[in-house]
């Protein structure tokens, strides 16, 4: 029986070592916000935070993780109140179909935690999640709005 820290809670599970983290999150922790997209860590729908860093969970085997590492999913990001990125997404109607947006929000919130005022080029190079609906301009606007709100909260 192995254990992981997901959203501040210990999740126990018994799976093969090569089982992707995504399936532990969805099937064993019952947190279905994190989505399966491509299975090869390209699209970003499965993005979670691993010790604060945006990580694609569909290709990360659980054997590569320890109980000490902190995993945060979309459910844990705005657990107490919506995260500024979630607020910006809702205000600007960033999502169209919405399937990719959970991973996008996780990637953006990680970026803003590391770089409070990213340039357009930094956003484009760091946020490599794929949006089939093409909401990239709204994503860019959402990042800027969230960054401005986070700066106001810090100041």
Describe, in plain words, how this protein is organized in 3D.
This protein is α+β, with helices and mostly antiparallel strands and 155 residues long. It is 39% helix and 14% strand. The chain is built from six helices and five strands; from the N terminus they run E-E-H-E-E-E-H-H-H-H-H. The protein has helices spanning 21-28, 74-77, 84-92, 101-114, 120-126, 136-154, and strands at residues 2-6, 9-13, 47-50, 53-56, 70-72. It has a five-stranded mixed sheet with strand order 2-1-5-3-4, sandwiched between helices. A hairpin with a 2-residue loop joins strand 1 (2-6) and strand 2. Helix 3 packs across helix 6. The longest helix is centred in the last third of the chain and has 19 residues, at 136-154. The chain is globular. The protein starts with a strand and ends with a helix. The relative contact order is 0.16. The mean pLDDT is 95.
Q: What is the topology?
A:
Blueprint: E1 2-6, E2 9-13, H1 21-28, E3 47-50, E4 53-56, E5 70-72, H2 74-77, H3 84-92, H4 101-114, H5 120-126, H6 136-154
Parallel strand pairs: 1-5
Antiparallel strand pairs: 1-2, 3-4, 3-5
